[in-house]
TrEMBL record:
HAMAP family: UPF0145 (MF_00338). InterPro entries: UPF0145_dom_sf, UPF0145_YbjQ-like. It comes from Ruminococcus bicirculans (ex Wegman et al. 2014). It holds the Pfam family YbjQ_1. This is UPF0145 protein RBI_I01178. It comes from the Bacteria. Belongs to the UPF0145 family.
Length: 107
């Protein structure tokens, strides 16, 4: 199982850096849900359809990052970061990136 952390170390492990790995996706919601979310904007409240969209996007971007790390023979990905940007109304790009590492033994 791949270890994923947002620190630049893993306690008790010496790490060999393998390189940058990343995964990304662009997600959108359907028009019907989008219209309902627009109404919610007017009256206030949590935009659950967008929360679901962003959670799905982060999960897929993370999975793609892990696949890239596995292809390098990594045991873990450290210093993981996420970034997102709006592409169009109701669509967002999410990227997950970090440093793939291999364990070199106990410290």
């Amino acid at each position: 199982m791949m270890i994923l952390v947002n620190t630049d170390y893993i306690s008790g492990k010496k790490l060999e850096m393998l390189g940058l790995v990343k995964g990304s996706t662009i997600q959108t919601k359907n028009v019907g849900k989008d219209i309902m979310q627009s109404f919610k904007n007017l009256v206030g409240g949590e935009l659950t359809a967008y929360n679901e969209m962003m959670n799905d996007a982060r999960a897929l971007a993370t999975k793609r990052m892990v696949v890239e790390a596995e292809q390098l023979g990594a045991d873990a990905v450290v210093n993981i970061r996420y970034a997102s940007s709006a592409i169009a109304a109701g669509a967002a790009e999410v990227i997950a990136y970090g440093t793939a590492v291999k364990f070199m033994g106990d410290e």
